[in-house]
Amino acid sequence: MRTPKVLSFLWLPIFAAAALILLSASPATVIAQQPYHVLDHWKLGGDGFWDYLFADSGAHRLYITHGARVEVIDSQTGKPIGAITGLHGTHGVALDTSGKFGYISDGGGNAVVVFDRNSLATVATIPAGTNPDGIVFEPATQTVWAFNGRSKDVTVIDAATRKAVATIPLPGKPEFPAVDGNGTVFDNIEDKSEIVRLDAHARKLTAEWPAGCDSPSGLAFDISGHRLFAVCDGKKMAVVDSNTGKVIATPAIGDGPDAANYSPSKNVAFASSGDGILSVVDASKPDYPTIESLPTQRGARTMTYDPSTDRAYVVTAELGPRPAPTAENPRPRPTIVPGSFTVIVIGR
Fold it and tell me: What is the pTM of this model?
């Protein structure tokens, strides 16, 4: 039945009030769904490709692998602090628990480079396997674990003697590692789509699990919640029980991811991807919904997270055309616009 015109006029104030309530609620709803946004861009310049970066919360530093050097910048201001130079092709950075030394996987030099965190001077170069990539400091045994991409093994280095004490074969090409702090090490095996578990005390492989997605690269760890977060091809993140290897969920993320992180205080997992998206997954919900897909910049596939400030950092550069493929290089990278290398700061 059609409402009489008189009653329609009576309803108008109610409709108007309801509309105002909806309009006023919309921004809050958007903020709840998109908690993070881009805060700043810090242009560092320089040439060459990049890989992983690492946030040192206590010292307010970012270590950024960039071609044949590691850039060190202030994580609060973006101002350069210095650089570790004379390297060949850097991939990752790990820091010891004493606050004195850092370790660089120098893939082009098939070595782990030890540097003084105060002076940034190189103090040792330790031979590793072929093309060390992911690297992590294992605190319970005070060892450095360098995962060698081409020789498909891991070099274990005693931090005190700076000598390799073990080489552990792996079932395939390793990517990023994670540790629980008590002697257990995890790593993605990219070409087998697996996650492996290793015992740092016994220096041996103890488990080999399906990752639940294809070609896992970046890996984050919720230690207290016993959950691993592996980012994969196919726009998926695999959430894996670190005790059993069971795949719990596979939330959607961006395309071409290479890094993952986890925030214990916010209970969210992050994935950065080459298509220029930072995905935020709500790890407090049983279905692990992706609550935000934040645009960053094309090529911003690697990331670090500082839990003390709740800030994520991604790096990229302006990318030019991709060269034609050749027999020697069937999948060439795009060219880089000189001087355009940039850190993108993300927070609330």
Answer: 0.88
